[in-house]
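All the exercises in this workshop are built on plain-text protein records. A record pairs a protein's sequence with a compact description of its fold. The structure tokens are whole numbers drawn from a learned vocabulary of backbone shapes. Once this layout is familiar, the rest of the handout is easier to follow. An example says more than a description, so a record of this kind follows.
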Amino acid sequence: MEGRVPEDLAVVVDADGAIMVWSDGARRLLGYGPAELVGRPVTDLLAARLPESTRRHAAEGRRWAGEVALRHRDGNRLVVRLQGTPLLDAEGGLLWLVTGTAPAYPAAPAPHRALSLWDLTLAQLPVPVAVYGRDARLVAANEIMTEVMGRSEEEMKGLTLWEIEPNPPFDAIDRLQREVLRTGELIYHEEHSQAPGEIRPHAWSMFMSPLKDETGAVRGMSATVFDTTEQYWARRRLAVLNEASLRIGSTLDVTRTAEEMAEVAVAGGFADFVTVDLLDSVALGDEPGPLPPDTPVTVRRAAQRSVLEGCPESVAAVGEPISYPVGTLPLRTLAAQRGARHRPGDPELLEWLRSSPARAESVTTHMIHSVMMVPLRARGVILGLVHFLRHRTPDSFSEDDLLLAEDMVARAAVSVDNARRFTRERRTALALQRSLLPERLPELAAMDIAYRYLPTGAGADIGGDWFDVIPLSGARVALVVGDVVGHGIHASATMGRLRTAVRTLADVDLAPDELLTQLDDLVIRLDREEGPEARGAEEASGQVGATCLYAVYDPVSRRCTMARAGHPPPALVTPDGGVRFLELPAGPPLGLGGLPFEATEVQLEENSLLALYTDGLIEAPGHDIEAGIALLREALSSPAQALEETCEQVLRTLLTGRPADDIVLMLARTAVLGAGKVRTWQLPPEPAAVARARKMAGEQLAEWGLTEAEFATELIVSELVTNALRYGGAPIELRLIRDASLICEVSDGSSTAPHLRRARVFDEGGRGLLLVAQLAERWGSRQTATGKTIWAEQPLPAGV
């Protein structure tokens, strides 16, 4: 339908074609309200393509006029006579003032009639309009302008704007009007001010346009004003929400998230004082349960923020518990699971204030006049309560403010709940990891050990780094450092399984390269058994994998045998202070399968220092691995006398902030068991060797002052040597080691492993190893390059 409606419109469009201002006349003409169109493209209103001349003038930034087909809100087509005037905003950007009326058919009226209609139009425009002469004195003003200024047209005629209202911001507007009259250029100006007697600032958009005659000379100017208060406050609310989205939840820390929400609400001018109270279980990271009926609830003040320094309005310190008694307003608000506005005179709020004299005094002292309570609720669970208060801001909280507060708190609640879940999982993962790592290191004669284990900070889950120190037979020691791919509970659990496997394989006394091969098979088997479903979505694209370094040090021979599976190489500090990184074959990470591992043997001097670590120590956002290795070399170049001090020295040098990954650092200073603590005999493969071995062992124990252990030791030596003669072969060797315990070893040339068996009544043999097992504290066997070694350990007598 095409038609004419006797209404006028005025619209402001920005350079991108979005509607900025929508007048009341435009609403009456086309049926749309400002909330429906502000911010939308003006092309949404077109019912047909713009005329060619109109499009060309608009593209060139020139004034245009013509009839345009628009779409009414009811869907009908409406032809309107429009005029577009280019404007400049305060920053020099292009704006368009589009005004128009329905076309008057048929022919245009007579000139004197047109002038009369124009006067009526100016007087009845639904926006404030004023006309000023060449001397910036008012000539005419429509009725809306007189209402805004609070003076009649007759009172203002002949006066400048500054004379009409000699108060800011009219002085600045008066200067802008004179600028229009001087330059002949249109000026767009936005003003936010508070009218006399009002408590809420208004926003105005003003267009000051020059009025020119046929020759182009400026004869005066017009000022058209649009009230954009609602749009201004809508933008303010959107800005607060946008700031909340950007700032709340920047960390996975419950307390910090609560602080961010309070900061956003106060810094954005939304509230003068904000408190965030969390349920105790939420503050601790536990799962909050439903609120028990008819039971007081204890919360903990997690954060508070005020426009006044030090939050003098507060009656509770951060971290302090607060009780919500049964029937009080906060508890009823939590039970209702929705926010509410209150004034100090409300009976419910008065009852809450009377329950605490300090709270009532604070409200009176600071003249708090408006309060909102909004529950923190996420995923159907109540987490706490947020209080918004105003005392410096004159106007009370409105219904729109409550909606904004609920939206802001809802966003914060999701972040708080995420932080709570992270805290719980991190605490669980850390507890699991701590339980799987050694609580204390064994006392060893072979070396001194010091270590540092640093779980990563907030922002990432606990990883799978681990270390271990394993005493082996013959006073040897195994050192292990590893790192499981991934983070979280699954990585910690995998780490625990690998650490247990390493200990089991170490008890079998496998060589380092053989041990890593067995560990590699285990990781592959774990990956096949679990699959991505068990690992979770975050690790679904990868495999179970790990790196590991395994080293065995023999304090008797001073040999250290090492192998690594994709792990950083260890550093060696010689007694003279030299630092070098041992060139071990890198080996593939565990879990790839099919690739070999190679072991390297290094002869170490006494008091050498080995540094084993995970990649978190040398990798950091500020530098690459090579730079990290250089820093580690620097830190180890002058080690302290005490290993604990050296550990701290290394961490100070390499860590400049919170680590991005778990860190393990283990330092081992080697010792040597000299000839005075080790005795070795070569035995001939003949029966007489048993008695001879027994005699030599007894004499050596007497020399060491261990006569109390002589009887048991001679029996163990007798049984082990007999077993070597009967089931093994040359060469046969007997070795006694005095370490933290008394160690007896017998080696032979057979690789057949011994095993216990229960002898029958009339059997002549089969009881030797059973006897050894009963006399020794522990015993076992290990394979050697020439055969095997059977060993037995006894505790040293008390006081020795």
In short: Residues 1-6, 104-115, 536-542, 758-766 have pLDDT under 50 and may be disordered. The longest strand covers residues 77-88. DSSP finds 22 helices and 31 strands in the chain.
